[in-house]
Design brief:
The protein is α/β, with parallel strands linked by helices. The chain has helices at residues 4-12, 17-23, 28-37, 39-51, 54-61, 65-80, 101-129, 139-156, 172-181, 229-235, 251-262, 278-287, 301-305, 334-347, and strands spanning 132-137, 161-166, 187-191, 200-204, 210-215, 226-227, 240-244, 272-275, 291-296, 309-314, 323-328. The longest helix has 29 residues, at 101-129.
């Protein structure tokens, strides 16, 4: 197909205008040509039409009066390749710049273009210079590393800020992935991360063992560093275990229940305390001395270091707890790049 501008004028005499538009829409070649010949002159025409004076438009843009007039003529010649006898300026008033009906249509188009340009520049300002990073995450990694990561991030960027969303419940891994894929989050942090496809990428982080957690005030704390779950339960029939709600169908809950059964130490429903999230689990362990929990070592690192909880290795060990960071393969946001670097560096120690 020849470029539309070559034969539009001649075909106007044959076909009604609505048929012309349907038969010959603008193609990529026409769009490229329009951008080269019309858009470069658009601001000058707009200023001339809105100020009503070539001289005033020239002074505003730092151009000569003649230069502004030539820009108007260039657009007229360009549009005449599509439409016959295009006139954008009413020349019956030579001392002023009055747009014709076609000129007024071009002014409205220019207003839209300039408004979109301002919107685009604001968006670029936010993308390139903004310090906000939106994070969708589970509890454990953020409760462990969040404060340290934010402090390091703010050292790099004066206007750094983290907009945090804690994700729990069924299919939390898929929810976090969707948040990043659909652009509502810049970074996703999840355990048992799913496979992702471009433009997303997954950065896997160090795996952590699952450990048996006791409140420090528990009256029968094991003396060994490695314990058998069956013995712990048989020694204390009143012991209760804190687990995440089974209705959530989350991997860590399923693995804990399977491990308990494999150890022939199954606790009945009355001995289970189901919670919605990690924060609730730790609150119960800290306040109820007769409780235990099987949690990722990462999730209780801070509380163990402060002496509030005690962690023991399991015999036999459970499958390691895995987690990772979901993000775009390539991001144009400097803030996100700095945040990811801080997070990965701190988490990997």
């Amino acid at each position: 197909m020849f470029p539309f501008r070559v034969y539009r004028t001649s075909l106007r005499m044959v076909y009604p205008e609505p048929i012309m538009r349907s038969l010959h829409p603008l193609d990529h070649v026409d769009s490229d040509w329009f951008c080269k010949h019309v858009l470069p002159e658009l601001t000058r025409f707009f200023e001339a039409a809105t100020t009503g004076k070539l001289q005033s438009a020239g002074e505003k843009l730092g151009k000569t009066r003649q230069g502004i007039g030539k820009s108007s003529q260039k657009i007229e010649r360009a549009l005449s390749e599509w439409f016959s006898d295009v006139s954008l300026r009413d020349r019956s008033h030579p001392k002023t710049f009055r747009p014709t009906e076609a000129g007024e249509a071009l002014v409205r188009f220019a207003e839209d273009v300039l408004a979109r340009m301002e919107q685009f520049m604001d968006e670029m300002q936010h993308l390139q210079n903004g310090g906000e990073v939106r994070v969708a995450t589970i509890y454990a990694p953020w409760l462990t590393y969040g404060a340290q990561v934010e402090a390091a991030f703010k050292e790099r960027m004066a206007n750094a800020s983290v907009n945090l969303r804690l994700i729990t419940g069924p299919k939390y891994m898929d929810k976090i992935t969707t948040e990043v894929r659909e652009g509502r989050a810049d970074v996703g942090i999840t355990s048992y991360p799913p496979k992702v496809a471009p433009p997303l990428a997954l950065t896997r982080m160090p795996e952590h063992p699952m450990v048996l957690i006791f409140p420090t005030k528990y009256r029968r704390l094991p003396k060994e560093k490695e314990v058998k779950l069956q013995k712990v339960i048989s020694d204390d029939p009143d012991l209760k275990i804190v687990i995440f709600q089974r209705s959530f169908d989350v991997p860590v809950t399923n693995r804990v229940i399977a491990y308990v059964r494999a150890c022939e130490a199954d606790l009945g429903p009355s001995q289970r305390i189901e919670v919605d999230n990690l924060s609730q689990a730790k609150d119960l362990l800290l306040t109820l001395p007769g409780t235990i929990g099987i949690l990722p070592e990462l999730a209780v690192r801070n509380e163990v270091a402060k002496g509030w909880l005690k962690a023991y290795r399991l015999d036999p060990p459970m499958q390691l707890w895995t987690w990772g960071i979901i993000h775009r393969e390539e991001t144009s946001k400097p803030a996100v790049r700095h945040f990811l670097d801080c997070l990965i560096r701190i988490a990997k120690g």
